[in-house]
Design brief:
The complex is a heterodimer. Chain A is mainly alpha-helical. Chain B has six helices and ten strands. The model of chain B has no long low-confidence stretch (mean pLDDT about 95). The chains are: A mainly alpha, B alpha/beta.
């Protein structure tokens, strides 16, 4: 099945809808018209650039370039995790924990999926590796950021309770156990909700894209199920690692709650 | 075997110059000082809840010789404002001591009480009952009667002193009320200008 090509003026028609929405927002004094237009411009520029990068990458197809692209995506995701936390660990710990958690979860699950499940030749074929890693990182990033934000915020608000448990002789892990579990739940709920609603409330983006591009719905569905499962695994393991390491960092060697290791986001 | 003393060995916080002190078993040592003078910080340092210089010992064993949570279970800090996290009072008590609960004005049914219905005064007395249910080897009491009316204050402090003497444990008791200090203290120290002085 041939894919219908989209010209720039057709995209301009869609952009017109966003401009109309911006005008309505302006008239309603919501104070978001500028943000909406800026976000629309960023979407256009960022996706155009990434399209160019992907076309170049697909034509070269070497492991080194794929790895470099993956590393760049990982570092940007790590920065995003850090930026999304109201209270974050000082001294690069927040960035390091978020990035390391995504590396061990998103990267390892992506490689495992490429090698053991999909099996392209070579295994790092950019057409498969980059979109897969992108989706993994995007979702893992959300889970890790939500989990860390919930952890630090809850420890901050419930410090009296946590310290009271320490006073009664509980270990650090027991004293913050319920908070850690809630933080992990926060990180996992979005992907669980997505899986539960997939196909009923919403048609997932990747599957929709494949169907629009001419793939048979049955095959698109298989890919979507694969992606959902791998995203769930990556998000779960990433959130688990990030919350565990960050919570340990918030207690010192003598199991004291060290909220002085947090700094408040200026944004 | 003689019960151990609590010893402060050049213990210093950000607000307090190094303190060396022995708190013998079965005695109450009161600590007073203006708000913000560092009384609570000293108690927290002894409980090893915040970084400090020097150390505290329970008999021969220093803080660093024990795991932190084991130390805190032995040297138990009862804060002025207590927190409760389980649904009922009973879930917070390690080994409920009916005598202690009765002396503090509670019946056996208190274990079934929801923590949501507790007043600030009840919380303060139950925090004491909770602490002794762990059979601590030393008590650090941060204004343990601050939320109580005069009659309950007298009853609570009488029980506390009796408990400390009978169980032969050392106690450091932060208090503002000079009358109360006269009633309960074997020794009294005052913090002023970052220094601890015997009164």
């Amino acid at each position: 099945m041939e894919v219908i090509d989209l010209s720039w003026w057709q995209l301009a028609l869609a952009a017109g809808l966003v401009v109309v929405l911006a005008a309505c927002i302006y008239l309603a004094r919501l104070g978001l018209a500028g943000s909406l237009l800026l976000a629309a411009v960023r979407t256009t520029v960022q996706l155009t650039l990434v399209g160019l990068v992907l076309e170049a990458l697909f034509s070269v197809g070497s492991l080194g370039w794929v790895a470099l692209m993956g590393l760049g995506m990982l570092l940007l995701a790590g920065r995003e995790v850090m930026a999304r936390q109201q209270r974050r660990l000082r001294g690069g710990w927040s960035f390091t924990i978020g990035t390391a958690a995504m590396f061990v979860s998103a990267f390892s699950v992506t490689v495992l999926t490429l090698v053991a499940v999909i099996g392209p030749t070579p295994w790092y074929e950019p057409q498969y590796a980059i979109p897969l890693l992108g989706m993994m990182l995007g979702n893992t990033m959300t889970g890790v950021a939500l989990g860390l934000d919930r952890l630090t915020e809850s420890l901050w608000r419930q410090r009296q309770l946590v310290e009271n448990r320490l006073m009664l002789g509980e270990s650090w892990s027991s004293a913050c156990g319920s908070i850690r579990r809630e933080a992990m739940r926060s990180g996992l709920m979005p992907i669980i909700n997505s899986m539960a609603a997939a196909g009923i409330v919403s048609l997932p983006g990747m599957m929709t894209g494949q169907i629009l591009a001419g793939t048979a719905p049955a095959l698109a569905v298989k890919y979507q199920i694969l992606i959902m499962f791998t995203i769930a695994a990556g998000t779960g393991f990433g959130t688990f690692v990030a919350v565990t390491v960050a919570s340990r960092r918030l207690f010192d060697r003598r199991e004291r709650l060290r909220l002085d290791r947090l700094t408040t986001s200026s944004g | 075997m003689n019960p151990p003393s609590l010893l402060l060995d050049s213990l210093a916080t950000e607000l307090l110059e190094p303190v060396s002190l022995e708190l013998p078993p079965g005695t109450v040592t009161c600590l007073s000082g203006a708000s913000g003078s560092g009384k609570t910080r000293l108690l927290r340092a002894i409980a090893d809840l915040e970084p400090h210089r020097g150390t505290a010992r329970l008999g021969e064993r220093a803080q660093e010789d024990m795991r932190a949570h084991d130390w805190r279970r032995k040297v138990m800090l009862v804060p002025a404002e207590s927190a409760w996290w389980c649904e009922t009072v009973g879930e917070h008590l390690q080994e409920p001591q009916p005598e202690a609960l009765a002396a503090l004005g509670f019946g056996d049914e208190v274990g079934e009480w929801s923590v949501d219905r507790l007043s600030s005064g009840e919380k303060q007395r139950l925090a004491l009952a909770r602490a002794v249910s762990f059979s601590p080897a030393a008590l650090l009491l941060d204004e343990p009667t601050a939320n109580l009316d005069p009659d309950t204050t007298r009853a609570t402090e009488q029980w506390l002193v009796r408990y400390i003497r009978e169980h032969r444990i050392p106690a450091l008791w932060v208090a503002h009320d000079q009358e109360q200090i006269r009633r309960v203290a074997d020794r009294h120290y005052h913090i002023a200008g970052g220094r601890l002085e015997e009164s």
